[in-house]
Predict the structure of CAAX amino terminal protease family.
Amino acid sequence: MTKQLPDNPDFEPLTRTQVLVAMGITAIVLLVVAKLWLKFGSVTLLSLDFTVEGLLIGLGIGVGITAMSSVVYRLWSAYRKSADVYLNLVLKPLVLPDLIWLGLLPGMSEELLFRGVMLPAIGLNAVGVIISSLVFGVLHLSGSQQWPYVVWATIVGLLLGFSAVGTGNLLVPIVAHVATNWLSSFFWKLGHREVEA
C-alpha cells in the first residue's frame, strides 16, 4: 500500500522515475504541439538570439522571480500550502542532479510553446501575454485545491511574456524560466532536507 501525502490525500507519492518520465513526456508533447503549430499555423517563431545581454536579462529576471516567490511563499499561506503539495509531489522524490532536468525540460519546452509560438500567434501585445499566461497557469493545475499555485504560475507567465515582448528575444524567458526552476527547486530541496531525512 502506498503512503499518501499528508498535505493532500488526493495525491499518491510519485517515485523519482515517475517524475523524470513525466517531465520528459510532457516536454516532448509540448515540443510536438509547438512544432505542429509552426508547421500548420501561419505563425513565425519568436526570434531566438543567443546574446550575452539576453542571457544576463534572463538570469536577472529568474533571480527576481525566485526572490518574489520566496516572499509570496512566506506571506500567502494558501500559496504556501498549495506550493508545498505540488513541490512535495514533484521535488521530494528527486535528487539534486535531477534538478538539471527540472530546469531544462520545462524551461525550454514550455517557453518554446507559450512564449515562442502561442504568444506570436495571438499577438505580441498585452492581450497575447495575458491569454498565453492564463493557459500557462492552467497547465500547472494539479488539483482543485491548487488554485493559488495556478495564480502564481499565471503571474510568472505574465513576467515571462512581457520579457519576451519587451526584448523580442525568446532566449530571455527561456533563461529566466530555467534559472527560476533551478534556483527555486534547489532552495526548496535545501529547506526540506531535514524533513526528508
Remarks:
- The radius of gyration is 17 Å.
- The helical segments are 16-40, 52-75, 77-90, 99-122, 126-139, 147-167, 171-191, 193-196.
- The longest helix spans residues 16-40.
